[in-house]
Amino acid sequence: MLRRVLLPATVLWIAVVGTGFLIVDVIGLDERAVSEAFVDMRTSTLDSVTAVVSEMGNTQVLIATCVLIVAFIWWQSRQWWFAMVPALALGVEALVFLTSSLVVGRSRPDVDQLDDAPPTSSFPSGHTGASTAVYLAFALCATRIKNTGLRVTVQVICIIVPLGVGVSRVYRGMHHPTDVIAGFAVGATCALIAWNWLPARDAAEGVIAATAHDDSAGASAGPGAASRTR
Q1: Torsion angle of the four alpha carbons 207, 85, 94, 151, in this order, in degrees rounded to the nearest 10
Q2: pLDDT of 81-118, one tens digit each?
Q3: In percent, how much of the chain has pLDDT > 70?
Q4: Residues 6+ apart with CB under 8 A from 92
Q5: pLDDT digits over 129-168, tens only?
Q6: Has residue 21 got a pLDDT over 60?
Q7: Which of 40, 41, 59, 193 falls 20 to 30 Å from 10 in CA-CA distance?
Q8: Could you tell me if 210 and 36 are in contact, meaning their C-beta atoms sit under 8 angstroms apart?
Q9: Alpha carbons 82 and 67: distance in angstroms, whole number
Q10: Cα–Cα separations (whole angstroms), residue 46 to 50, 64, 98, 207, 230
């Protein structure tokens, strides 16, 4: 856990905070034109659609989605360490996002915002990062689906959802474009960190299973071996 999860998460946090300071304090990147261009695109239909899509990256919605995904994978695989990959990805993302956004402290775009702004700062996008972490982790887990059509369908959906969330957050005036790009990077990295944890769990469970098998084999062979020795 320390080597495969906490250490890379720490490196990710340093990279996010460094990038945030570079964008906000050093370069002073002005993305107002892009934000205003999205405002000019607004229609009542797009407002309704982006409200639904953006809500898919909401904390409560994502936690519920993650619980359902974990339960489903556990039910199908009977391997808790495999099923926990999306949950681990979301947990790491939340830790990196909450602490890095507090340190960077970027203000939100100066445009009309269609949602209530959460207390966290704008960089990186938490909605985008969390949805990317959960759905990309699910897409990685879906590589074990044997049916090609079903596997591809699930993975495509898992890519489209966070993309939609990211675009919706910019459209609704809640984030600068670079906030969303950083959110994608954070979420994708957290999904890969969680996925990288899996081989260690597989190896550990394999050792446990092999040890238990050897012990049971030795116990069953014991009396016979003893009688042959006598």
Answers
A1: 160
A2: 889 999 999 999 999 999 999 999 889 998 988 888 77
A3: 86
A4: 5, 9, 133, 190, 193, 194
A5: 999 999 999 999 999 889 999 999 999 999 999 999 999 9
A6: yes
A7: 59
A8: no
A9: 14
A10: 6, 25, 29, 53, 85
- Please report where in the chains the tokens 């969390």 appear, as a residue: 130
